[in-house]
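mind reviewing this fold:
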Amino acid sequence: AIALRATIAYDLALSSRARPRPLSPLQLSPQLSWRRCRRDLVLRARATRVALVAEMPRARLSGLSGLLVLVAVRAEVAEVGLDGEAAPALRELDYELISKCADGDAEDVARLLDAGADARAATADGETPMHVAGIAGKAAVVKLLAAAGADPDARVTAARGLRMTPLTWFAYGIHVDGAAALLDAGAAVNLVVDDEKGAKLTALDIASRLTEAADLVALLRNRGGKRFEELDDDERRRFGG
């Protein structure tokens, strides 16, 4: 209930006439949802070793609304393990690359790679630019990262990340063109990841559970995709099952 009320309060604050002062270098838009803002703040805190609460956008928050937002954000700090801990040394340039990949901004991704951003950079949780590219799912971003040496099969390393690969992020987002670009870049179609209950999944398992993913299912099948139950013992060992 607190998180829901904080979400509403935060979104109302950001939709007010007074535009919050943007954070540098990340320009936070007043239209950002609570989930998107929280994700960006977590990434920024990991990148710059700045406490998450201190990086709250300067929206017009007061009284109960402000308190609810701070409570929710402090809960998020505890959840991601940043409260009082130093974040890993992720360069600002690499953080900006991760942010732009999440946005699907191919032009800025190309600019940052040209400036020396690392396509293989990773957060403390093991999330790479190729992973977060699965948020917007743009094939053009995948191609740029692949050309710059990104690992199409990188796994999230944090326990709560369920060993996710970029392809499984794209599968959850039903990004058919982006998934095709990942496979073209050499992503293994049948790498095994976990779900919250401990079950084993492939990208095809994920796509098969989504009602609007028929085209993605067809793509994965055409590229040799299998459900976990269809993998033989050797394939399960090779693909992390």
Observations:
- Residues 1-36, 42-87 have pLDDT under 50 and may be disordered.
